[in-house]
Here is the input.
Amino acid sequence: MSNLSNKVILTVATTGAWPQKSDTPNIPLQPEEIAEDILDCYNAGASVAHIHVRNDENKASMSFEKFEQTVKLVREKCDIVINLTTSGGIGLSDEVRIKPFYELKPEIASFDCGSMNWQHNTVFENSPSFLEKLGNAMQEVDVKPEIEIFDAGMVYNALYYLKKGVLQAPLHFQFVLGVPGGMAATVENLVYLKSLIPQDCTWGALGIGKMHLPVMYATMALGGHLRVGMEDNIFYAPKVLAESNRQFVERTNRIVAEMGKEIATPQETREILGLENWNVSGHTK
Ligand code: ZN
Here is the structure.
């Protein structure tokens, strides 16, 4: 195994569920443009693609066909690690949320570890029965859960599911800070959340919107992995829209280099996260 201690995994979340072309014309929303955008970010050094899809009206969706198309196009273009969301919309059935990763077998899929009041206007529901079903389904098809944490109680949910066998060690966490209804994006909150997880875990963090950069710097200082992209933040600087997701990747590359670290290649990412048994066309196990 190569020396991975100074490698930082960089996930790009190109699309998300909510931003529209009216928010930024530079966001990719349909399979062809998402795949092109991911290739562009891969060429700029991104390690992982966190993928959401939209329906034909560009609205939040868990359309299996759109996922299938997108994943196929990405796999044709490059060997970036693929991470599919299981939360591409509100009020969807368990089956609709599970089917894309179950059938397409990405290396990673998101596991949102509890329910919350989402942005003060709806309930982001991840019920106990859903989470059990989700964790067990991921184990069946050997997809690694990325445990998304919006609030401290969700870490304790993850530890509960670890004990119960719904999740398996080593866990991989993603702290998502700054969503209204969840924990604010502060350095103090990040330090606190990191203190709650077991030693053998891997983790990353991101701040939504204008807290993107402060959380990125703090995450690097604490030894975590990074995520950029228009799912989380469409502005490159105050009042300046990012021209592309690639622009975020390029900036992160410079920041990581200045810290004396390097962005992990997809292959190094597989080693860090214990995904060695996978290959780009689906895993080999
Ligand atoms: Zn997402």
Summary: The CA atoms of residues 18 and 250 lie 24 Å apart.
